[in-house]
Design a protein that fits this description.
The protein contains 12 helices and 9 strands. The chain is α/β, with parallel strands linked by helices and 276 residues long. It has a 7-stranded mixed β-sheet, with helices on both faces. It has a two-stranded antiparallel sheet with strand order 6-7. The longest helix is centred in the first third of the chain and has 17 residues.
């Protein structure tokens, strides 16, 4: 079995076993996209390059199947990835052998978890965690570790689902914000979906993360989601004839149209600088 087929098989198995998501065609298409590390997936590298953050030492926590990591390594960037899931580590090893990637690539992939990052203090200039923080075993410990290994003057970018939403992206179903887990299990049973995936999820929100990060006096935090909304509102509704509270409401409904239509979740997009 080649690495691409292996990836497709594992993603299909996991999607069904954990979340009851049985659209095999969509899952296989996702595997095809993730297998191709020649493209700037989701534009993540474009943002990093625009701000010259690619010039330092970079950590991707967790690196998943390595799409982001391999792209960076191919560009010659000084990047490392941490990944706890053994089948993903096996997939990356298969792929590196098939494609004859340089031997040093293997040294850039570390088996580990966010709660115990195997690097010294102040190791990285830029850290990214993408759609991962909702899955860690302990959110606060993981944040502590990410801040510990971040250099003074370095930048941490967090992107993850905001569970202050009416949609759960892994199950792809409407969902109450931070739904009680017992109630959620009954709801999933009604939908004939497994509860196994529920145990892998943390109901994180932008507010809860910022509230915890405020305990660190040496951090500067920018909420990009709020910033994007402010720009959108000022551009589209600055000269609105409506009262401000109503104009703000219309702007929010317009900006989060897919969220209010229960088709998509809000996103946590935080950039954190370590100042001292």
């Amino acid at each position: 079995m080649d690495s691409k087929t292996f990836l497709q098989q594992k993603l299909v198995e996991d999607s069904i076993e954990y979340f009851g998501y049985d659209n095999i065609a969509v899952t296989k298409e996702l595997a095809r996209i993730w297998h191709d590390d020649s493209k700037n997936l989701n534009g993540r590298w474009k943002e990093i390059e625009n701000f010259d953050d690619h010039k330092g030492k970079i950590l991707d926590m967790a690196c998943g199947v390595g799409t982001f990591l391999f792209y960076g390594l191919k560009k010659g960037y000084d990047i490392y990835g941490i990944e706890p899931e053994k089948w993903k580590l096996s997939y990356m090893d298969m792929k590196m052998k098939e494609l004859n990637y340089p031997d040093y690539y293997r040294d850039r992939i570390i088996e580990g978890v966010g709660e115990n990052i195997p690097f010294e203090d102040n190791s990285f200039d830029y850290i990214t965690t993408y759609q991962t923080l909702e899955h860690v075993q302990n959110v606060e410990k993981t944040l502590n570790e990410l801040i510990r290994v971040l250099k003074v003057g370095g930048k941490l970018k967090i992107q993850a689902p905001d569970y202050n939403s009416f949609y759960e992206p892994h199950y792809a179903v409407p969902f109450l914000p931070r739904m009680n887990k017992k109630l959620a299990k009954l709801y999933l049973k009604f939908l004939n979906k497994p509860a196994k995936g529920l145990d892998t999820l943390n109901w994180i929100t932008s507010h809860s993360l910022k509230e915890y990060l405020d305990n660190f006096p040496n951090l500067k935090i920018v909420d990009l989601e709020e910033l994007y909304f402010e720009r959108y509102r000022n551009k589209r509704f600055k000269s609105s004839f409506l009262p401000k509270f109503l104009s703000d409401l219309v702007a929010k409904v317009s900006f989060y149209k897919s969220v209010f239509l229960l088709k998509k979740e809000k996103q946590i997009r935080l950039v954190i600088w370590k100042e001292s």
